[in-house]
Amino acid sequence: METRRDDGYEISTAPERIDVRLVHRWLSTDAYWALGRELETVERAVAASLNFGVYAPDGTQVGYARVVTDLATFAWYCDVYVDRAHRGRGLATWLTRTVRDHLAPYRLSRILLVTRDAHEVYARAGFVPYPDPQRLMVHQPSSAQTDQP
User: Fold this and answer.
1) What's the angle, vertex CA 37, arms to CA 32 and CA 38, rounded to 5?
2) Exposed/middle/buried for residue 7 (C-beta within 10 Å: 0-12, 13-18, 19+)
3) For the whole prediction, is pTM greater than 0.70?
4) Which of 17, 20, 62, 144 is the most exposed place for a label (fewest CB within 10 A)?
5) pLDDT of amino acid 142
């Protein structure tokens, strides 16, 4: 899947276009939920996910997001990142809407995400607070890396 805006920015799901080392640098050094994440972890996550790259008009990757899903009932939207030099252009909202629209034909029961500070970005794409947060539970093994918010 590829889609392009009038200003030349593009979103693609082509796996060969994802610069995994760049994504690793962004996440492990600048994303509060993934600080210190190892390259091997990013490589495994990318390999097991539906990936969306955001590309500037010159083809340089400037953003990333991934979806963990069974494409039948559920999706987890995560690791959303836009390079600091390209923020303020609506790329994260466009990316989120593109992901939402890409998943729509699968008629998933829900798409979840977690954010500490980007509620407005996701609200513009139709996300709302979880109606019954007391129903959510989490298991975080003490030996596992707990780099999710």
Assistant:
1) 165
2) exposed
3) yes
4) 144
5) 75
